[in-house]
Amino acid sequence: MGIPFFPPATFAGMKTNGSNLDRPASSMRPPVDPMTDILDRAPPRTELSDAEWRRRLTPEQYKVTRRHGTERPFANEYHATKTPGTYRCICCGIPLFESDTKFDSGTGWPSFTRPVSEAAVAEKVDRSWFMTRTEVLCAGCDAHLGHVFPDGPPPTGLRYCMNSASLRLEPKG
Ligand SMILES: [Zn+2]
Question: Which of the residues are catalytic?
Fold first, then answer.
């Protein structure tokens, strides 16, 4: 008589890509908080219908994150914010940027030198508007976050130019 197998619980109403479910038990790590332990591995996936995203988000958040929009410079929540904390995805909640990598780019959008980890974001060539840019997406839910440019300050020389509407700042402490 074996122990009955129960699949791991998933978030109510969310689908996962199952990537964590296929591994043999011997390779499983000890239980961790999936929202913080993503420094070196793919974050948990959140996949919802377009209608469900539209229901959960404000019209501005929906337009930016699910329709690849761009909010207005300066007239957005976090462009000048210096509050210490973690910027999470507005859609799925995974950590994306830390406040100590934020800098004043003068562009009117929140700008960072790097994400919390390489695994937190996905990058994609964007040829819209007669330009070639690198689009930055949330690796947890494919939300459009903004673009990355090679004109940032040290140590990376990169400028992750983000939309405030894609982010939610969780203050430290
Ligand atoms: Zn996300």
Answer: 161
